[in-house]
Automatic annotation (TrEMBL):
Pfam families: PadR. PANTHER family: TRANSCRIPTION REGULATOR, PADR-LIKE FAMILY, TRANSCRIPTIONAL REGULATOR YQJI. The lineage of its organism: Bacteria, Pseudomonadati, Pseudomonadota, Alphaproteobacteria, Hyphomicrobiales. Gene3D superfamilies: Winged helix-like DNA-binding domain superfamily/Winged helix DNA-binding domain (1.10.10.10). Residues 8-80 form the Transcription regulator PadR N-terminal domain. It comes from Pannonibacter phragmitetus. This is Transcriptional regulator, Acidobacterial, PadR-family.
Length: 208
C-alpha cells in the first residue's frame, strides 16, 4: 500500500513518466517518505492502472523509444484521500553509524574519526540538497505542505550536524581508550527473558 500511496501522491502534483517516478522515489525528494525499491515501482504503477486509479499514455520521441507518461484519475485522487486518512505506522530509523558509535571502544579512534567525518559529510550533502530543493519550490498555497516537510527535513539535518560536531570529542575519547574501562562488558537483560525465563535461564546481552 505504501508504494501505491507514494505513486499517487507524486502524480497528484502532475503527470510523470515511470522513469521520473522511479528516480524521485528511490533517490529524489520522495525517497524520504517510503521504502520504495526500483523493482516495486513499475508493478505498483501497473496495478494502479489496472484498478483505474491512473492512466498511461505513450509519447513518441524522434529517434528514441516511446516514453510512458502516467496521470492520476479522479478515482485515483479519491483513493489517495482515503489512504491519507489511514493510521500511520511508526517511522523507521536505522543507522549503521550508530552501531559503530555504540562499539566505539572496539572500533578504535581511527575508525570512529572516519565514521564521524563521513556522517557529517553525508548529512551536509543531504542538507544542501534539501535547501536547494526548497529554493526551487514556489511559495504558493498548493505547496505549503511540501515546504513544511522540506523545512522539517532541513531542521533535522541541521540539528544532527550540530550534535555530531558538538559531541564528537566525547566519542573520540571513548574510542581512544581514555574513558573508564569496565573489567567485563556491561550486561543488558532482555525484558522478555526476565519475565519468562527461570532464574538460571535468563538471557543476557553483552553490549560492545
Amino acid at each position: 500500500m505504501s508504494v501505491r500511496r507514494l505513486c499517487l501522491a507524486m502524480l497528484s502534483a502532475g503527470d510523470a513518466t515511470g522513469y521520473e517516478i522511479r528516480k524521485e522515489s528511490t533517490s529524489g525528494c520522495f525517497s524520504y517518505f517510503e521504502d520504495a525499491s526500483y523493482g516495486s515501482i513499475y508493478p505498483a504503477l501497473a496495478k494502479l492502472e489496472a484498478d483505474g486509479l491512473v492512466t498511461m499514455r505513450e509519447e513518441k520521441l524522434p529517434g528514441k523509444p516511446a516514453r510512458k507518461v502516467y496521470s492520476i484519475t479522479q478515482a485515483g485522487r479519491a483513493a489517495l484521500l482515503d489512504m491519507l486518512q489511514e493510521e500511520l505506522p511508526p517511522d523507521i530509523f536505522r543507522s549503521p553509524f550508530l552501531l559503530v558509535a555504540m562499539c566505539a571502544k572496539q572500533a578504535g579512534g581511527l575508525a570512529i574519526r572516519r565514521a564521524l567525518d563521513q556522517q557529517i559529510e553525508q548529512t551536509r550533502l543531504k542538507l544542501n540538497q534539501l535547501s536547494e530543493l526548497r529554493s526551487r519550490v514556489p511559495d504558493t498555497a498548493a505547496n505549503k505542505g511540501m515546504l513544511w516537510s522540506i523545512g522539517y527535513g532541513i531542521d533535522c539535518m541541521t540539528r544532527k550536524i550540530e550534535y555530531l560536531e558538538a559531541n564528537r570529542t566525547e566519542l573520540e575519547t571513548i574510542a581512544d581508550g581514555e574513558a573508564v574501562q569496565e573489567t567485563s562488558p556491561p550486561v543488558i537483560q532482555t525484558p522478555l527473558a526476565a519475565e519468562y525465563a527461570g532464574p538460571d535461564q535468563r538471557s543476557e546481552f553483552h553490549a560492545c
